[in-house]
Design goal:
The chain has 395 residues and is α/β, with parallel strands linked by helices. It has eleven helices and 18 strands. Strands 1, 10, 11, 12, 13, 14, 15, 16, 17 and 18 form a ten-stranded mixed sheet that branches. An eight-stranded parallel β-barrel has the order 2-3-4-5-6-7-8-9. The longest helix is centred in the middle third of the chain and has 20 residues. Bound molecules: pyridoxal-5'-phosphate. Pyridoxal-5'-phosphate binds next to helix 9 and strand 9.
């Protein structure tokens, strides 16, 4: 399949879906809010080098990654004018490359701020820093007691540092159970922003929102939003999607029909049936005893297992599409293959297409279409899709 002869599956990426998702997200942003597309985790498994040009052609001008390695991948393929921002990992010594390449970066420790000054001086170019502040997630970020030192360093190094952004991240904006915590974080962020302002330090951009925050708490959009999952066509959680539908009238009198899904899946992931066989009633299928045939069954094997990105947690849980029908993954997912129940499929045979993510027009499977087992599953499964699966862009 494809050019990679070792691959047992194939990913396709839809250009029109990217365009539609960008258009939808922009329609939800207030005026003058910059959209940064998040490309961490190999672009949520879609592939950095394919997604960068797709975002650019959809009008996105700012891209966010987790690590310097991802920033390097982006810089190999991006247009000159596209801005890149590192939100997480880089070694202090790597700051030199980062500054030389005009890459913006998060600073959440004094050591990194010192490295920024040192290398900006060495390179002879300003470092574009985004100061991350701690507002309640307790992951990374300067706390209030650090600010005096940070402010002093920022003020005494204005010729080396651009105060590009002041940022934070919410601890679970996709669920209403975190409402109070998010509200506290917003308040804390604004307090810390005021401290910088009192000292005459105004960031070029204030940014705090991921997909869920941008949708559910519009006041978090500020000057820029960092959007990942929505741009790939998935909702951060079922709750966020239902809230969106209700805000468009779903569930109210006279409008009982579901609101049309405004996002389109960018990715589809397909393989083929490797072989088909019949199993008599009473037999156990696969390793161990987790699945027993309760009637005479027809099963098929698909050469995609957990080593290829199909999570073992989908054992006896996952769904795939075969010949237009949604069928169940049965027994445990193996390293190299899975077993599916094709008892109800007519004329099914070796070589037939199997869709792990995507649709055949009518029937859909998302990676977590089996009852939203977990909101985090979409993020996890997507980002674990192996980098060496061949990827093809389609219109
Ligand atoms: C992943 C991430 C985002 C984007 O989150 P989505 O829910 O995919 O929109 C934004 N900001 C930071 C710091 C992140 O790590």
């Amino acid at each position: 399949m494809g050019q990679n002869i070792f691959s047992t599956s194939m990913v396709t990426l839809s250009k029109s879906a990217v365009r539609q998702n960008v258009r939808f997200v922009k329609s939800k942003l207030s005026d003058n809010v910059l959209l940064s597309a998040v490309l961490k985790g190999n672009a949520y498994g879609h592939g950095i080098k394919e997604m960068v040009p797709l975002y650019e052609s959809a009008g996105v001008k700012h891209l966010s990654v987790f690590s310097i390695h991802e920033a390097e991948e982006v810089c190999k393929v991006k247009k000159n004018s596209t801005q890149v921002m590192i939100m997480g990992w880089m070694e202090d010594e790597e700051t030199e490359w980062v500054i030389e390449n005009d890459v913006e970066f998060y600073v959440f420790e004094i050591g990194r701020l010192k490295a920024a000054v040192e290398f900006a001086r060495k390179v002879g170019k300003k470092a574009k820093v985004h100061l991350e502040v701690e507002t309640g997630m307790n992951r990374t970020g300067f706390q209030e007691e650090h600010l005096a030192e940070v402010i002093e360093m920022m003020k005494s190094n204005e010729e080396h540092i651009v105060f590009e952004g002041l940022c934070t991240h919410y601890a679970g904006a996709e669920s209403i159970t975190n409402y109070l915590r998010v509200m506290d974080q917003i308040k804390k962020y604004n307090q810390l922003y005021d401290i910088f302002k009192e000292h005459g330090l105004i960031p070029n951009r204030r940014h705090t929102a991921c997909s869920a925050a941008a949708m559910s708490y519009p006041e978090t959009q500020m000057d820029m939003v960092r959007i990942g999952i929505l741009l790939y066509g998935f909702w951060p959680s079922q709750e966020t999607f239902i809230a969106y539908q209700r805000s468009n009238g779903y569930g109210q009198e006279g409008l009982s029909r579901r609101v049309k899904h405004p996002l389109k899946r960018v990715i589809s992931w397909r393989s083929k049936i490797m072989s088909v066989k019949e199993v008599p009633v009473g037999e156990f299928i696969g390793y161990g005893t987790s699945y027993q045939a309760t009637k005479k069954m027809k099963i098929a094997t698909v050469p995609v297992g957990y080593a290829y990105g199909f999570a073992r947690s989908l054992s006896n849980q996952g769904r795939v599409i075969v010949n237009g029908k949604r069928v169940a993954v049965i027994s445990t997912v193996n390293m190299n293959l899975m077993i599916i129940n094709v008892t109800e499929c007519k004329n099914v045979g070796k070589g037939d297409e199997v869709i792990m993510i995507g649709s055949n027009g009518k029937v859909n499977v998302t990676v977590s279409s089996f009852g939203e087992l977990s909101n985090q599953l979409n993020y996890e499964l997507l980002s674990r899709l192996p980098m060496d699966i061949p990827r093809k862009v389609v219109i």
